[in-house]
Amino acid sequence: MTNSMNSVKARWAAQMRGMFPDARLKKDRGTEMTYEILPRDLHQILAYLKNSGWRQLSMITGVDWIEEGQFELVYNLFDWEQGLRVLLSIRIGRDKPQVLTITNIYAGAQYYEREIHEFFGIEFIGNEDALKSLFLERWDALPPLRKDFDSRAYSDKKYVKRFYDPVYGPQGGAPFERS
Amino acid sequence: MSEVKLFFGPQHPGMHGNASVHLYVEGDTVKKARLVPGMLHRGFEKSMENHTWMGNVALIPRVCVAEPDINEMVFAQGVEAIAEIDIPERAHYIRMIIMEMTRILAHMMSLGAISSPTGLYTVNHWMQADRNDMMDIFEEITGHRVYHMYIVPGGVRRELPPGIEKRILDYFTEFERRIPEYQALVFENPTILARLKDNILLPAEVVWELGVTGIGMRSAVGKPYDVRKVTPYARYDQVEFEVPVATYSDAYTRSIFKVIEIKESIRIIRQAFDMMPGGKVNVKMAAGNALKWTVPKGQTYSAVESARGEFGYYIVSDGKTQPYRIAVRGASFPQGFLGVERYMPGVRLDDAPLWYDTMGVCTPEIDR
Amino acid sequence: MEIKKDLFSPLKAWKYAFKTPVSFPMEDIKDRPRESQDNARGFHINDLSKCIGCGACAEICPTEAIVMVKRKDLEEKEGEHPERPTMDYGRCCFCAMCVDICTSGSLKMSKAYVLNTPDPQKLYVMPEESFPAPGGDILGYDKTPESDLLDLKRAEMPAVAGAQAKKSFVEILKGYSMEQARAEAARCIGCEICVKTCPANMHIPEYIDAVWQGDLAEGLAQMYKTNPLPGICGSICTHKCETVCAIGKRGEPVAIRWLKRYIVDNAPEAMYEEVLMAPVSKPGQGRVAVVGGGAAGLSASYYLRTMGYQVDLYEAKPLVGGVARYGVPAYRLPDERLNKDVELLEKIGVKFLVNTKVGQDITLDALHDQYDAVFLASGLPQSRALKLENGDHPDVRYAMPFLAAARDYQRGAGEMPDVAEKAVVIGGGNVAFDVARTILRLQQKKYGHSHVSLVSLETRDILPADLEEIEEGEAEGLRCHCGFGPQGIELFQGKIRGLNTVKCLSVFDEKRNFCPVFDPEQKGMIEGSQVYVAVGQMNEHTYFTPEHLERIALKGGKVQVDDWGQVKGAPWLFAGGDIVHGPDMIHGIADGHKAARGIDVYLQSRSETA
Prior knowledge:
The complex is a heterotrimer. Chain A is α/β, with parallel strands linked by helices.
C-alpha cells in the first residue's frame, strides 16, 4: 500500500467516524478493515460505501457465537479501485434471528442471504426467495452450520455404519484383534 | 409454443461438476433458468470446523477440483494473517510458481471444456494430455497429481525436488510451441468462432450488479481488476506481468483471455525461478506437534485471484486447535446463481452450456 | 488481437493422426500401470519392526482412515504398544500426514496406486514392508525435515552457566515459564507409551495435556493420583518415561520431568488445599506404622492416609525425605520443593516421628504390637565398601555419610565437611557425580578454586549417570577419567598422594554380567589427597531379629515380597522401595502406592474375618 493510498484511507476512515459514530473499527490489517456496526446502521453504511467506491459485495457470511447467544453477519465489500476491503460485522440475537435484506442495495446479495438462511436459519425480511431451500433438499434437522448441530451425531443416526477387518497381514494371515 | 422443462446436468457433457440447471425452454430459446445445486454438497464449511488446522490442509483442496491450490493458498494466507506469521521469502516464490501452474491447469481445463458445447472434442483431448504432463510435475513436487496439499500455513510443505526447475521450464518451452496449434484449432476455427464471437455478452452493468470478478469483470469493465494487481499477495508485486482487459465481453473475448493469461503465467513462473532466493521453505505455524497447533483468536478474509476471479475464505479462530468458522467465497458464486437466473434466459438452448462455461461457473466451489 | 479466419486451420490437427499416442493402452492400466513420479503418495508401507504403535498416524488422520489394531503376535513390551496401524483405503485421502508425523519414521508411502476390487473389505489393509500392488515395493513419499509434523526440539530450560553454578548450591535449572511449559507440553502426542514404562504408571499424557491447556489444578490432581511426591520427582526422577518417549525416537524426548516440576512450582498453596486436601477424610479404624521417611515411605503414608488410616512415620534422621533430603545436593533439589511435598503430608495428618530409629529406639516387634500393619521402607543408607590397597586410610571417604553431612551444611545444620584441595571420586553413577560436584562447590568456597577428578570403569558413552549430570559436571570443571579401574591408593609420608589406576578394557561380558577386564600394562595415577568412594549403596537390616530372619526371605540383601509388597512369611509386614527393588526414586513411590493398596486389602480382609 502506497503512501497516497494510506492518506486516502485515513481520510475515508475519518469521514466514516464522523458519519457513523457507532461504527467501531475492530481491526485494521492494512488493506482490510473490520467494523463492528449496529444492525440499524447497516443499510445507511452500505449505501454510503456503495457510492464511495465499494461497488462489489464479495460475500455475506454468518458466524454462530453460541456461547454469547448471538449470530454475527459479516458483509464483505471490496473497492477494486483503491484495493481496500471493508468487513462490516453486525450481531443479532440467536432466537428468531431476523435482519432486513440488502438486495435493494446489492442485488448480488440475494443468494448469499438464501444460503445463510439455509445454513443458519436467519430470516432476511424482504427477500422471499431466501426462504426456499437451496443446497439441502428435504433437510430434516437444525440448520447445519449452527454450532449446536452435531454432524457426526446426525450421520450416525442417519446412516448405517459398516465395519471391516483388515485382510492383508503377515503371510496373508490375520492375527489381529480390533481394539 | 409451449414451454418445456429441461435439465442441463447433473449428467451432461457441458456441465462442470454435478449440478443441474433447470431450463424452461420455448422453441430453442431459454425462457427461465435456475441453478439447482446440492448434488455436490459435501458440507465443507461444517467439516472444516471439525478438523485441526493442519488436517484442514487435506480437506480444503477438494473445494475446487480443477484448481485446488487456491484453497490451500487462501487458507494458508488467512491463518498467517491471523497468527501474524512471516513466512520465508523462498516460500513466497514457490507458492507463486504453484499458483500460476494451477492457473494454467484450470485454464486448460476450461478451454478444453469448450469442446463439449461446441462439439470439437480434439481440444479436450489435447488439453487433457498436456494437463497430464503437468500433473506429473505436480506429483513429483507435492506427491499428488490433483490434490496437492502443498501450500500450508507457514510456507510450503517441503522443498522443491532437485532438478524440477528444468523440468518445469522445459515443459513450458514445449507448451509454448503448442499454443499456436491450440489457437489454430480453436480460435481460428470458423465453426467455433461462429459460436463465440458476439455471443453471450456480459455488459459492465451486469458485472457490478452480480458481483462478477475475474476474466468476466476485466473483459467488461476494461480495468485490470485482478487481486494480484490490486492487493498483491505472495510476491506478485515483484514480478512483471500484464492483465488483459477489454470493454466488450463476449464468449470469444473471455476465452481468448485465458490463452493470454496462460502466457502471462508462464512469464511469472520464469521470473519466479530467476528471483527465487534460497533458504527455508516454511516455519512452524505454532509450537509443538501438528495435533496441538493453535491459531490465536481473530478473523480475516483472505483472497486470491483464481482462474475465475476473486476466491476467498473468511476465517474465524477462537484460539483452539480447530477453526471456529470458515466461509468459502466461490469465485463463480455470483454468476452461478444470480447470473444463471437473470441472464441465461434469452440465450439459445445450445448456447446454455457455452454460457455456463465461458462465464466461468465452477460448480464445486459454489456447492461446497 | 487479429483474428484470422482460415477454413483449413483446424485441419492442422490432422498431422497428429500419424504420431504415437500419448495415452496409455487400457490393458496395461491394471497390471502394468505406468510408474508414478518420485515422491508419489501411493499406498502405505510400514516397517513393522520399527513401528512402535504410538498411534500418532491414527490421531492426525483427517479422514479417520487409520485404526490401530492389536497384533496377537506382538508382546507387550517397554517403549512400544503391540498395535500397528491399519488403513481403510475407502476413506484414506493420501495426504501423507501420517507419514509426516510418524514418530519412529517407519511409515512411508509406496508408488503403488492401483488397487482394483469390488470388495470393500479388501480395501482395509495393514501395511507392511511392501504393498501388494504394482509399484508397492518402490519408495514414494517420505518425510523431509521441513515436512515433519512433530516438534523434535525441546523448549529450552533456563539454567545457570557452569562457571557460575559451582560457586553456590543454588538450583541450576530455573524451571519453565508458562510459555515454555506450554510449548513443551504441545510436543506430546499423548501415545501413553511412557505410562506403561513409568514404575508408578503416572498419568503422564493427562497432566501434560493439563499444562498445555493451562489447567494447573487438573495437572496437580492427575499427578497425585499415582505420585504424592511430584516435587521430588520433578527434579530428580530417573525419568524412564523420557527414555521411551516416542518423540525421542527421532528427536529430543518430551521434558516430562520438567513439566511435572512446572506444575509443582506454579501451583499455589490454595490450589493444593482445594484439589488435594478436600477429599481426605478424618482417620478411621486402623493404624499403620511406616518405617523410613524416604520416597517409598512418604508415598505409602499419603495413600494410606487418603484411604482413611492413621499413619505414623518413623524416621531415624531429624528430617524426613530420605535420599532427597540427605543425598541429592540442593543444586538439584532445593529443600523448598521437597518441603512442599512433605508439608502436604503433614497437613493431611501423617504423623512424623523423627530421630527414631527402628531397631534401635523401638523394635520392629513393638511396632507389630502397636499397629495393625507395618510398612518397611528403610532404604539403603550405607555406602558399599570398595576393597583397595590402603583403602582403610582416614582420608578415604564414603559417599552417603559425606553427602548427608554436606546437605546438613547446605541447610545450615552442620559444619562444612573438610574437603582437600585436590580430591578423587570413584564411581560413574549419579551419586558419584553428586559427590564430585558437591566437592567442587565446597572447594570453591574454601579455597577459591577447585580440583576434582572422577574415575569410572565405564567409558563416557556408557556411564550410568544421566547425560545432563555429565555435561553439567564437565561445564563446572570436573575432570572425568572414564574407562579406568581403581587399583590402590598411593601414600606418601602417611598422606594420600593419589589413586593408582589401570585401563579398563570392558565392563560387561557378552551376557551383560558385570565382569571388568583390565589391561595391567596401562597404568596411571590420578592426583588427590582425598579419595571418595561412590560405587553403590547398601541396606542396614538392623531391625530384623534372628527370629524374623527365620521366616523372612532375603535374597542378595533384598527383602522378598509379593506383588502388593506383602513380605513373605510375615503378613502384617509390607516392604518396598530400595530394600526391595534397589535404588530408584520412582520405583519407591510406586512401591509405596502398591503397598498402601495391599495393606488396605489386608486390613479389610482381616476385619471381615474378625
